[in-house]
């Protein structure tokens, strides 16, 4: 017989288990003195980058992961596939122009598209909070299903966990996705070259301002709808012009500024923007002026940045403008040999400024 | 110019966005009058099944999803792959014998193995709580990396989100995984046949009791260590005997009872267990007796159930016992033509009882 059972009080839920130290850990992350996680670590900017560089990359030690693309491109059965994941913790769950459900589908579909891949399969994993209305969960699921149909992707596997009331926010969703990379396509964050033309597929800053308008109780005169949409069709139209797209990126958290800085560093090129050419809708510009934000740092959920060889740029731009998801596409800058790893912008007055990536994020939890 | 900006108070964070109804929704889930999510919906038992059946399956309408296997088996580039996802919300993050990090790797590796697939690639997505020690996150990541190395799988893509203090529990992790299904293997929850022998790969109920021992402040005389481990190697050893394994399942949430009931229903067979043959360690049996639990309903994280044609059963069992992850493997029952869709057990006194799946779960958040 085993020893008779005894009850022992252990204080709190986090009783000491088998907790190891983090070996090799020597100092807090450079950007913060505090050795704890702060909201900025989830903002997609410089602090997020630090966490990945100092904590996750050393622990996982993988060459594909270290490329830090929107998705990993892998060999399977003699062909290439793209694989990507994203968790969604947006507040509120429903916002003008979308909800967490379509965001979760489009976000991963778009991460795959940024490798040139057409999404085929998605997983859907839910962390639900006790006490959430089942009808709300159902509405999210139904919108996810509709978004998957629109994007031409199948939701083939899933999972549901429930956490106690107060430990979640109604619904968190993770999606992971698999897509096929067409032959001859080699789109990577480190392929930008001096001379490449930088194209944005449409208006910037719309998703972030749409979320802010409902969450912070602001009204901007005109209702701003999220730009959440799948971009696989737009990318296919671009690849029909040329397979030699160098870089694609969807500028979500941290906005266009973060994406461009990451590409400038990965590729070792300078990026020079013409600020007058940025397609910033008036309502976004006004909201940003009012709130002290830079539209370049505000999140988008249905836009892409493309780095295209100069010879193909006009034809690619025309193909984008002919597609419903790219009708407002514009050339916003070019890659240069000057200031490698940095992004600069010529202002309306002819001066130049450095476009840095945000440290944390002005508006947490926009996706 | 747009209208001048105005500030408007909207009450609470959940300002009315673009919230739709859940179309086609007519009634609360049959097992509950309350129209809200309860902990039992995440327990892996009957209530989890209801949520999937009434909310997710109709919304996503996918044939692979509807099979409700541990992973989806899909065609890509002319070959077959398995794809699976799981989120992990275990409390506490570190427990005797493991932590949320190795659980997140082994859980998805094992879901893939239940299709006969060897895991190749994992995604890792973190939802971190503001205020969590970075060293804790690092320790989790380091253990994940070590578990991935042990399982022979690469972590190739990832994501990090941060939620405000009080909205999470330190660390939630989602992993999704991709594996290759060998030719000639066709393992599905609906392939059990009368005459099949039911084998368990080792001691049952260990993970659930290990979590309970630290969380509920119980001591059971002997320390109970979680059985979290990767099962790809064990499955490969079994497939080396015969490719004609009918069903594999890792009995996690809801335990052996839930897995067997799901298989009985999917396959339309009866399952008859011999209770005396169940490998329940004494410390688990004592803890269950003390707590009023059925060891068949307690979670495992490093065990599998196999349904094997009678002619191959002895040889498969021998191969399992020769593998370090299957040294305590045992035949626990068989499939019968009687009582299709139900599981029965012959007790030590020769009587028979129905083994039902739990409604919710006795111990939430064990994975």
From TrEMBL, chains A, B:
InterPro entries registered for this protein in UniProt: HypE, PurM-like_C_dom, PurM-like_C_sf, PurM-like_N, PurM-like_N_sf
What protein name applies here?
A: Hydrogenase expression/formation protein HypE
For the region Disordered, what residue ranges are annotated?
1-23
Cite the PurM-like N-terminal domain residue spans from the record.
Answer: 70-181
Per the database record, which ranges form the PurM-like C-terminal domain? 193-339
Source organism lineage?
Answer: Bacteria, Bacillati, Actinomycetota, Actinomycetes, Propionibacteriales
Against Pfam families, the record matches this protein to: AIRS, AIRS_C
Protein family membership: Belongs to the HypE family.
Query: What organism is listed for this UniProt entry?
Result: Nocardioides koreensis
């Amino acid at each position: 017989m085993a020893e008779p059972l005894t009850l022992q009080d252990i204080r709190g839920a986090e009783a000491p288990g088998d907790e190891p130290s983090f070996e090799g850990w020597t100092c807090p992350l450079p950007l913060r003195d505090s050795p704890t996680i702060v909201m900025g670590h989830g903002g997609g900017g410089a602090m997020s980058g630090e966490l990945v560089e100092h904590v996750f990359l050393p622990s996982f030690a993988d060459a594909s992961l270290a490329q830090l693309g929107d998705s990993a491109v892998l060999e399977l059965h003699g062909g290439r596939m793209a694989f990507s994941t994203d968790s969604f913790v947006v507040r509120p769950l429903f916002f003008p122009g979308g909800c967490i459900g379509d965001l979760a589908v489009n976000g991963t579909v778009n991460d795959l598209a940024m490798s040139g891949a057409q999404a085929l399969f998605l997983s859907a994993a839910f962390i639900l909070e006790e006490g959430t209305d089942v009808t709300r969960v159902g509405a999210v699921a139904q919108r996810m299903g509709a978004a998957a149909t629109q994007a031409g992707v199948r939701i083939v596997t899933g999972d549901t966990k429930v956490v106690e009331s107060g430990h979640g926010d109604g619904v968190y969703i993770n999606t992971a996705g698999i897509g096929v990379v067409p032959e001859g396509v080699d789109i990577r964050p480190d392929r930008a070259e001096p001379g490449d033309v930088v194209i944005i597929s449409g208006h910037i800053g719309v998703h972030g301002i749409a979320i802010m308008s409902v969450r912070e109780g602001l009204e901007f005169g005109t209702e701003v709808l999220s730009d959440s949409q799948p971009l696989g069709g737009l990318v296919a139209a671009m690849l029909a012009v040329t397979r030699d797209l160098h870089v694609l990126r969807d500028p979500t958290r941290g906005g266009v500024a973060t994406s461009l800085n990451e590409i400038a560093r990965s590729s070792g090129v300078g990026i020079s923007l013409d600020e007058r050419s940025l397609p910033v809708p008036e309502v976004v510009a006004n909201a940003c002026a009012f709130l002290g934000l830079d539209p370049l740092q505000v999140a988008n959920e249905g836009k892409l940045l493309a780095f295209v060889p100069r010879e193909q740029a006009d034809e690619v731009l025309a193909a984008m403008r002919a597609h419903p998801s790219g009708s407002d596409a514009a050339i916003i800058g070019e890659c240069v040999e000057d200031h490698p790893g940095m992004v600069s912008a010529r202002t309306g007055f002819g001066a130049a400024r450095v476009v840095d990536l945000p440290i944390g994020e002005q508006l947490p939890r926009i996706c």
